[in-house]
Give the backbone structure.
Amino acid sequence: MPMQMGFRWYGENNDNITLSDIRQIPGVSTIVWALHDKLPGEVWEPEEIKSVQEQIERYGFNMDVVESVNVHDDIKIGLPSRQKYIDNYIQTIRNLAPFGVKVICYNFMPIFDWTRSDLFHPVGDGSTALFYQKDMIQDDPKSMAAYVMAFTEKYHMSFPGWEPERMAKLDELFEAYKDVTKEKLWENLRYFLERLMPVCRECDIKMAIHPDDPPWDIFGLPRLLVDDAGIDRFLHMVDDPYNCLTLCSGSLNANPANHVAELVRKYSDRIAFAHIRNVKHFENGDFREASHRDADGDTGILEILKAYHDCGFEGYIRPDHGRHLWGEKPGTVRPGYGLYDRALGIMYMLGAWEMMDKF
């Protein structure tokens, strides 16, 4: 199976980008989807999945990749109630299998998903992009959460991992996580995956963990998948071909010490899903997301694509966060997920891939 190009879609009546729009981007075969109205821990029911299948397949796409089936906090914390939520997760895997799903992307980050200080930071050419100002992500998570929640409430756009129902209980969540050390979080992740692996083998669905974004501890919360050592520990801890990676170039390269192309070459046989994102670093530790063109950032996009090509990568790949272009602004676009820059990114990646195929 050759590499398959995907595009993340937030669903009918939840995304200003339509499947008709995506169909006009050459080379896209996979819609990366989810049931975005489901809270972590809820079972995805077959009739809900079938409804999305009918929408996606009507336009000639497959629905092989889900991003994400979010993990309930009780599983990450290791509470006795995790048994119920792991059982629900297993049932969701079983319910997804008959619809041809092959990969589930997820993360194991405590409380917060990806973290940014500015959702629409001016780039200087008229476009905007996600931005991380390091000195703003220090001791007060409430101000950052309030900023993100204000956006979601004003424009009625929710983000996976930033569910308003959870953010409303921020104090309770921090209290629940207060005794969860890095080692305890590793143990809870291992327990979760060991319960899932027999079902994944039975259903032929790979669990593909997304690295922590950004790749360091924030607000006193531990993060695990942050570098080569963390990835190596993760894959050896549950050494199963169905325990895989969603290797996100931008998440990992937010730390310039992470050389993503080397990680691709080292772990290519366990990468089920690839996110291609470019990052521009600043000397003070801030970073801004950039176009997918190699020269516009510091991530080494061409070197990364060559590593995937050299390794014979046959998994799924998608353009990750792009800039907001040509009239995309708050209220018309989900931060990081505009149509135009991701479409440009796809053509850049496919052009590079075809060049490597031919020459």
About this structure: The chain has a mean pLDDT of 94. The domain at 4-358 is CATH 3.20.20.150 (TIM Barrel). The chain is about 40% helix and 15% strand. The first strand starts at residue 4 and ends at 8.
